[in-house]
Amino acid sequence: MSATTLTRHAAPAAVRRPRRFDLKPSTAAVYFVALVVVALTLGPVIYGVLGGFRTNAQIAENPAALPHPWVLFNYTGVLTNPDFWRYALNSTGIAVITTALVVICGIMAAYPLARYEFKYREGVFMVFVVGLLFPASVAIIPLFILITQNFHLGNTWIGIALPQAAFALPTTVVILRPFLVALPKELEEAAQLDGASRIGFFWRILLPLSGPGMVTVGVLAFVGSWNAYLLPLLLLGPQNKTLPLGVADFSSEHGSDTAGVFAFTSLAMIPALVFFLAMQKRIVSGLQGAVKG
Amino acid sequence: MTTPRVAASPAAFVSSAGPAPLAHARVAGSGLGRRRGRSAAAWRKRAEIAFFVAPALVLFLMFVVWPIITAVQISLYKWKGIGPLVDFVGLHNYVSVLTNQLFTDALTHNLIIIVVSIAVQLPLGLGIALLLNRKMWGQGLLRTLIFVPYVLSEVVAGVVWRQLLVPTYGGVDAIARFLHIPTPQQGFLGTPDIALWTVLFVLTWKYLGLAVILFLAGLQGVPEDLYEAAQLDGASWWQVQRKITVPLLGPTVRTWAFLSMIGSLQIFDMVWILTGGGPIGRTSTMATFLIYQGTKSQAFGIASAASVILFVIALVLAVAYQQLVLRRDTRPDQPRRKAKR
């Protein structure tokens, strides 16, 4: 498919050597371009992380230099700051509740939409599909009133998690349905012969087999909730801020403490990054499954 | 979860799956479903369906659909956020939003963001995806690293970029000095004529990885034997990409462009963090406009009218795109579109 493949017959000598050391001009060019792209994408992130290891004086003197000497007090300052841990705890709590709601409601809804035949099935499914178009900002004012005044859930974890889960449901249902459709019909027939009801089939066969799909939507819901800004901004008071709110506030309150802001920001980005990278393979394969159907 | 902004959240990433599952509607079916069984069985089935769908549907109707309906209602009143809705003003809020220069500017910015995002990210993303779509050492790592900005929250990315772009003391100015490139005195985010382009640059940085990953996923679907046939015919790498790969990637590109458009309409977090819509409103978007009206001015009627207009634009765009562009991808009998020249 690539130049390497196309020229394989012309250069049999290259086959004997391990591919990875095969530095033909075309391959070298690809690596060069790839490295430039990676430098541009990662540059700001690395700059931020390194910035946390510098002093403000260092940054003012030469904004683009490496830390010299490396200092730790920005990071230790953040890690010993009780606010940081409270924000992290809030983010975690909200993200966990959101994820649980999304995965449970999503898989339950996707099951009949995938494997039952009933009159309004496509109608119900379309309701969720159209939901993909709803930006949270459109509903934000009524949502604020609903949560704070009608349900008195303002400033609570569940008050954020409920609407976040609701807005994540369309994506979840849209991903899970083809996943459940793809499970072979024979499984269901075999379960039926063994005397399982449809609910029994759901519990004993479908749920265990849906693991990868649920991981995909679960990670997406978790990272989405972890990164969310607008809804927590409007609904949470100072005591219950999440990390993105904390980052935004810290950076505007300590605007002159550039190194401190970098340290705070760098630490705040770690969990979502680690979580996502650890799950990346499963996410991408789950998405490919959904895209291909 | 936040919304499918340009893909502002992972939700958008996935919603790429949107159109595809529809094709399965007819395939689905329960092997257990009996043909019009006794009514007890039929009722049991209905109860089961209701049991499974109810939690999601209730959640969705209560926290998504109902607030949107309420937004329409509020948009017809003059309302400061306290007390009952009494001051009915009809479509007055819509008129004042649509004649408000701040809103039309914001709408213009949204349209610029749509056009520039696609015009820049499509060729760049396609180029990078084609380059990375080969067996090479470290391929997986490269893909992952390119995806990193997309995983960061917009707040975190925005704060880092804001610090980088601080005039004189920011990293960007330092590098520009090193390269002897002049920089604007008030900074890239503070100079009215440059601010929107700076925001667009940061958005490109954040979302290019999504395009690359989606295009790479689409490339997995191009059958290997096509490449082998082309190889036998003596096609060059460039010919193969132009005549085979890019045309077959059409559906993926069209889905991505759709996501990008809807996301660009909804963009909020990044702009709010980077500039707050300024300087002098030059980077505002419809979402920053309506949040500003709602939170700072307490003009909930105006804000709701703006949000309804935003929603209608998104809906019209989505339906038009579905009808005009995406439709061809869901008709299997239709011959594949030829590559442009």
UniProtKB/TrEMBL annotation, chain A:
It holds the Pfam family BPD_transp_1. Residues 88-279 form the ABC transmembrane type-1 domain. Keywords: Cell membrane, Membrane, Transmembrane, Transmembrane helix, Transport. InterPro entries: MetI-like (IPR000515), MetI-like_sf (IPR035906). It is a multi-pass membrane protein. GO terms for biological process: transmembrane transport. CDD domains: TM_PBP2. It comes from the Bacteria. The chain crosses the membrane at residues 28-50, 87-111, 123-145, 157-180, 201-226, 259-278. It is found in: Cell membrane. Its main location: membrane. PANTHER family: ABC TRANSPORTER PERMEASE PROTEIN MG189-RELATED (PTHR43744:SF12), ABC TRANSPORTER PERMEASE PROTEIN MG189-RELATED-RELATED (PTHR43744). Belongs to the binding-protein-dependent transport system permease family. This is Carbohydrate ABC transporter membrane protein 2 (CUT1 family). It comes from Xylanimonas ulmi.
